[in-house]
Amino acid sequence: MNVLRLVLGDQLSHQIASLRDINIDTDIVLMAEVAAEATYVKHHKRKIAFLFAAMRHFAEELRRAGTTVIYRRLDDPDNGGCLESELLRVIESRQISKLVVTMPGEYRLMEIMKSWQSRFEFAVELREDDRFLCSLDKFNKWADGRRQLRMDFFYRDMRRDHNVLMDGGEPVGGKWNFDSDNREPPVAGMVIPPPLQFVPDKITNDVLALVSERCADHFGDLDDFGFAVTREQALAVLDHFVDQRLNNFGKYQDSMILDEPWVYHSHIGFYLNAGLLLPAEVISAAETAYHGGHVPLNSVEGFIRQILGWREFVRGIYWLKMPDYADLNFFEAKRDLPEFYWSGETKMLCLAQAVDATKKYAYAHHIQRLMVLGNFALLAGLSPEQVNEWFLIVYADAYEWVELPNVSGMVLFADGGYLASKPYAAGGAYINRMSNYCKHCHYKVSQKNGKTACPFNYLYWDFLIRNRTKLKDNARLGMMYRSLDRMDASKIAAVQNDADRFLTMLPKV
Ligand code: FAD
Ligand code: DLZ
Ligand code: SF4
Domain 340-504 falls in which CATH fold? Predict the structure, then answer.
């Protein structure tokens, strides 16, 4: 009797729980490219190409190690189009004694998998995804009884529990967080190493042709595809980052630079989320570089916090709060997503730059996502459902477990403050401080009102005015509301008129 082991497209790790006790003489691994996963939202072409290419390479690695792999391609003539149809085909043709699966990253698929337990005659074993460093049980215990969750406290506990950047019981350097040394604006003459790219091999070229044909109506470009598609290549990307970019990661983490989408970020989210890299090894590589004296603590701590802190934290919140989290809409926002999120055609240069990078690379860095695309969505009152769908479609690292808490919790404050203590709302001055965009923009960042004023300026105040009842008791916004109270009536009227005019004209800006 054979054990059937299903490996999903974002579970491409030889350490994955479902493969751990495999008997290569008897067991079968099933991997399947299916239309249902590629189109439940119409993912960016580059994301689909990356995952299919990585899946095919992973299947080859398993085969080379002697494992029997049934691999279903999207263009197999009898491909049934969903994971269940491909599973049933194997079950019908082979003697299966048990199905072993690692817990999926999305709630919708978890519900389907739970139903398999009652539908199939054999046992279905759903294993915890222990690539993550905080088990769901542990997270739930940590969150239990807390009205609001704060990443900083969670992160400290994770540092202690995993003994990361610790000096006995104290944080290395005497502080948990070195952001006071970080977040500098870009400076002229910065030299940014280009990201490590790979020339597609035959397997990847086949996938690129397939995606180009089958997903022609999906968003995004496929040109110059250079993502890592194997663990070996992903490890090379990690090494390259630690060697060439980590040094400046902290300092320029929040910088935005004209026509420079990559800055000093790591670009490993695609690989971490698909299983080609493991969070523990990434953290260890950064920590080792610090102890070797190669990189400063502010960069290493800032980088590790993103993975040991934020990544684990948002995943814990997702599973704790789903399915209700997906429907939250604290501000009752309902404006449609403007067309420029797809076309990039807007005179607001910061937004045009972020959409352009997104379209070309299925990537934009954190501050573009948070303070440009996200900030605009928050201030303009865009529908959380539509904004979430967009973010899930467009990034090659997007899966609902990480996308939804970032969008609904961090960006849109749709959970009313469960994840973040205040909305990340900002006017044009923030973007001007952290980027070199504004001096090239059609709009004037120093102008507060009128047709040529930076829209972020009046949209910011309009957002605070519109949502006063819901936000007035937030202590972190007290200063802003006191400033608002000092504004005279004509200034408030100008803000509201500008915001109305701009939002009405939104498709055309
Ligand atoms: P770096 O800036 O180099 O950071 C290193 C790693 O830290 C990332 O690869 C990621 O694994 C982790 N990380 C950093 N910030 C976060 C965070 N806020 N939440 C979780 N992990 C984090 N990240 C995703 O992986 N998938 C998403 O779909 C996603 N959607 C986002 C949507 C919005 C609106 C915002 C504000 C953030 C989103 N993030 C998402 C978090 C973050 O922006 C990306 O992880 C990061 O930009 C990926 O690029 P990088 O690998 O160069 O990351
Ligand atoms: C994202 C994705 C895509 C585009 N295609 C597939 C696929 O064809 N087969 C597969 O097993 N997985 C795919 N995935 C990843 C899944 O959508 C992912 O496993 C779930 O969303 C859970 O995280
Ligand atoms: Fe963006 Fe305003 Fe600056 Fe233009 S002026 S780039 S819209 S922040």
Answer: DNA Cyclobutane Dipyrimidine Photolyase, subunit A; domain 3 (1.10.579)
